[in-house]
Structures are given as C-alpha cells and as structure tokens.
Amino acid sequence: MQKYLLLSVILYLQIIGGHSANPAKPSTPDCPHCVDESQYTNKWTMPLLKLGEKRYYLGIFFKANWFKAAQYCRYHGMHLASIASQEENDRLEKHIRDFGLGHEHFWTSGTDLADEGNYFWMANGRPITFTNWNAGEPNNFRYENGEEENCMELWNRDGKGLKWNDSPCSFETYFVCEVQPI
User: Fold this and answer.
1) What DSSP letter does each residue of the chain carry, written as one string?
2) Residue 147 located in a structural domain
3) What's this model's pTM, rounded to 2 decimal places?
4) What is the CATH number of the domain that holds 85?
5) Low-confidence spans in the chain with pLDDT less than 70
6) Residue 76 belongs to domain spanning
C-alpha cells in the first residue's frame, strides 16, 4: 500500500509541477546511463535506462497483468519491450540482474494471442525472429481454469539466466517498457 501511495504522490507532483522530483540528467562520465529524456515520447519524465539505441523503463513499483502493464507503458508514451537480438537480451538481463531483480518475472510485448503458436511483438507488430526461450517453451500450458499461456515474460526459471517463457496473461508481475527516439 505504501508503494502505491508513494507512486501517487510522485505522479501528483509531476502533474502539479510539470516535472519529476528527480529529473534525468544528460549522460556524463559520472552517470553514463543517464538520459536526457526530452527527446523521447514518454508522457512523464521517467527514469529511462539507455541500452544501445533503445531506452527502457523497469516497471518495478507494482506488479500487473500483461494488459495493465501494456496500458501503463502506453499511458507513459512507451510500449512493453520487444527484444530483437541476443545482444539486446543480454544487456537488458544484465541491467535487471545488476538491479537485484534477476529472480523476478518481467513482461515483454511478446504474444501469440492473435494466432496461437505464432508469437509477435505487440510493441511493433513484427513477428519474432530472434528467440531465447527456456527449454521446452513455449508450451502453451493449459491451467485447470482453462486459461492458456499466451503472453511472454522474462524469467530465470532454472538459474540459467532470464530466458523467455509463455505465461497466462492474467499473471501479475513486473514489466519492461521501451521507448524509441522520435
């Protein structure tokens, strides 16, 4: 409950003041991953991490199902993340591990809701060409309540790093948003 209260206060301050309590600093030698966010399309000043050409936001203040996570990202001018290469996957994984959250689950924009077994990135509509699935995934497991696994998460299931897993879209977990330069 305190997390939600703190988040509400921060959002209120952003609305009233028109800026974040911690505005992003441009990249400097003492802060190589800081980003001047003014050139990006996010609605609020969010703490974005620059990894390669993309900027990411780790949604770690609350857990959400896939749809609410996507809505949160979109509300802030971003999308759930898409991962196009092993290099991008490794950089994102390293950041998550360095943040101390390598054991958690994180939503991405990957889904096969439109066509079972054919995953694509909801963020850009492109089919997934690079893959990093956990062994035996995606398996579209069917739960007792009839729900199937149609949304993609990053998950360190067996201690071999953050790999991809299909999960029920109703599962509440953390998420990764991305924003592209204008």
Assistant:
1) -HHHHHHHHHHHHHHHHSS-SSPPPPPBTTBTT---GGGB--SS----EEETTEEEEEEEEEEE-HHHHHHHHHHTT-EE----SHHHHHHHHHHHHHTT-TTS-EEEEEE-SSSTT--EETTT-PBP-S--BPTT-----B-TTS-B--EEEEE-SSSS-SEEEEE-TT--EEEEEEE-B-
2) yes
3) 0.75
4) 3.10.100.10
5) 1-46, 180-182
6) 54-179
